[in-house]
Amino acid sequence: MNSKQESRDGVVASYQDAPTRTVSAGGVDFAYRELGPKTGVPVVFLTHLAAVLDNWDPRVVDGIAAKHRVIAFDNRGVGASTGATPKTIEAMAADAVTFIRALGLTEVDILAFSMGGMIAQVIAQDEPELVRKLIIAGTGPAGGEGIKNVTWISHLDTIRALLTRQDPKQFLFFTRTPNGKRAGKEFLARLKERKTNRDKAISLRSYGAQLTAIHRWGLAQPSDLSVIRQPVLVANGDNDRMVPTKNTHDLARRLPDSELVIYPDAGHGGIFQYHHQFVTKALEFLTR
């Protein structure tokens, strides 16, 4: 999509053209980007460990924004947002709710990936009236198997990436098969499509706080997910090293109104590897 391509009514159609705005609430200036039609229930995107606004796959954002208002944001202390990043998923969820309400929204759909999917589960439990539908990918429940290992897996793959001069996400998000390696390179190239007004990288302090929060989530007692009554689309690759795929199956079993999608020969970033299929499925789920 060529730059500045907007429809006649001023709707931003492409994530790479979406301006970064801020809204202040709870002592935080939240940085966010918005695109897509201005009507209907908005889809709020909740992102992964270490991610800022520029880490969303533009094919996924633009695909959803073709039919829905999409809002992506940096939570407290992340990227261009101010404040100190909390060390619990629950506090991150409270900050996300503060941001959503600051935009004047009373009902949203949530599309959440990895750590974002943990935050989404808490929001759905704490603020059920705020959430219409959930799409959660590459994530697991509190106390889920292997989640407490995210820290050492992240450190290990960061070292592997440094030694091979690659991006850690090539190892963390994708399989080491020919398909996985190719999908990883294509995904990383898409993340660089936005050339101007890019977000600030996450600070080491915020990254450390997020790792602490995920570790605590992995050690927590399981919660009663049967209280989440909203429809939930649960997705992952079949070979997720970061949040083992059995957690995705566990979520689908424990959520009363869930639908499960597992992508073959794919890792943690399965929704990015299979972005065409994922966007089609997500749009169908949101419209149903």
From TrEMBL:
Domain AB hydrolase-1: residue ranges: 42-272
Name of the protein in question: Pimeloyl-ACP methyl ester carboxylesterase
Provenance organism: Kutzneria viridogrisea
